[in-house]
Each structure stands twice: as C-alpha cells, then as structure tokens.
Amino acid sequence: MPIIKPKIKKTIPKTLNMMLSSDDFTNAKITSNPSDDIIIQDVTFDSCQFTGVNLSNLKLENVDLLDCLFEKCDLSNLKFRHLNRVVFKDCRLVGTDFSMSYFHNIQLVGCNAKYLNLAMSDIKDVKIEQSDLTESSFIETKIKNLTLDNVNLSNSEIINTSFNNLDLSTCNINNIKTDLSSLRGTKVSVDQALSIVTMLDITIK
C-alpha cells in the first residue's frame, strides 16, 4: 500500500508564539526559530510546514502531527505522540522519541536520526531512506509496510520486532543487537548474512 503524503492546505506565515497565543495550530508556514523554553501540550499540528527552524528547545507533552512537512529542521530530543502523513526531509532527529506512538504514512529522507526511539510504536506505511539511524531502538515495535533504503542501522536494537520481508541489503547493520525471531524472513546480502550469523553466535562448519 503506498504511503499517503501530507495533505497540506493553503498555509500562512506564522510563528509558534502566535500559534500559542491564538491556540490555533493549523495551516501554518513556520520559518523562524521559537523563543527558548516554550511549552506546548495537548495539541495537534495540522497542515503545517516547517522550514529551517530549530525546535529542539521546545518542551512538548501529548503533541501530535498531522499532514506536516519538516525541511532542514532540528527536532532533536523531542517527544511526539501520534503522527500521520508527515515528511521529514534533511532534518536532525538525534534522540527524537517516537516510542509508543502511532507512526503512520511517514517519510524520512536524508535525516540524521541517530538514537531514534521507535520502541513499542506502531509503524505503518513508512519509508526511511538515505538516513543515519545509528544506535536506534526498535524494541517490541509493530511494523506493517516499512521500507529501509540506504539506512545506517549500525549498533541499533532490533528486539522482539518482526522485520519479516524487509529488505536490508542496502543498509548498514553492523553490530546490531537482535534476536533470531526478529530477523526471520528478512532479506539481506551474503556479507550481511555472515555478519548476522556471527552476531547470533552461530557457528558454521
């Protein structure tokens, strides 16, 4: 099933401070950094476009994203709840926390997403390409229709998470921490297969 792209309606220039004061988090085009230590809670950003902004100093609680586009933004160490139809392009997502979230119709393109946390999340119709997910977490993650293309997964945790039918042949999976059931049915290259055998402490005679 194809990934549904963000359905962004006509946007108007706004700042996060303006959105907070009006309690309106829809149809916004945001290109300026927010004030430090802004607290945003119990809201959904809907039909918003963020370009070149640093959001890493925000304090978020129960924040959802719907039909949003982020380009060249810094969302490091933020935690989001549920996401649907969202694109992250050339973004910094270091330590960003999507654990226990609905993560549906999502695209990550050219992102620095080291230490990304997707533990216990529900992933559906997601494509991640040309991105660095070093030391990321896929623990007890539910996956349906995930594509990984040229993704660095080195030193990541893939535990109690089915990667069945996923093609990892273009990805870096060096030193991943995993279990046999998680990788059952995964498509890998010959070199990757030998590496996995070593990681699982299997001896070939």
Could you provide a short overview of the structure?
The chain is mostly beta strands. The chain is built from three helices and eleven strands.
Keywords:
10% helix; 37% strand; mainly beta; Pectate Lyase C-like; 3 helices; 205 residues
Write the layout of secondary structure elements.
Layout (H helix, E strand, L loop, with lengths): L11 E2 L2 H7 L5 E3 L8 E13 L7 E13 L11 E7 L12 E8 L12 E11 L4 E3 L2 E11 L4 E3 L17 E2 L1 H4 L6 H10 L6
Parallel strand pairs: 1-2, 2-3, 3-4, 4-5, 5-6, 6-7, 7-9, 8-10, 10-11
Describe this structure in words.
- With 205 residues, this protein is mostly beta strands.
- The chain has one domain (12-199): E3 ubiquitin-protein ligase SopA (Pectate Lyase C-like).
- It has three helices and eleven strands.
- The chain has helices spanning 16-22, 180-183, 190-199, and strands at residues 12-13, 28-30, 39-51, 59-71, 83-89, 102-109, 122-132, 137-139, 142-152, 157-159, 177-178.
- It is elongated, with a radius of gyration of 18 Å.
- The mean pLDDT is 93.
Give the distance, in angstroms, between the N- and C-terminal Cα atoms. Answer: 42 Å
Q: What would CATH call the class?
A: Mainly Beta
User: Number of helix segments?
Assistant: 3
Report the mean per-residue pLDDT as an integer.
93
Rg measurement, Å: 18 Å
CATH topology: Pectate Lyase C-like
Give the total of domains. Answer: 1
What fraction, in percent, of the residue positions are helical? Answer: 10-25%
CATH superfamily: E3 ubiquitin-protein ligase SopA
Structural class, by secondary structure, is mainly beta
Uncertain runs are none
**Taking strands numbered 1, 2, ... along the chain, how are they ordered across the largest sheet?**
1-2-3-4-5-6-7-9
Q: Strand content of the residues, in percent?
A: 35-45%
Overall 3D shape: elongated
Taken in chain order, the helices and strands follow as EHEEEEEEEEEEHH
CATH architecture: 3 Solenoid
Number of strands: 11
Give the biggest beta sheet. 8 strands, parallel
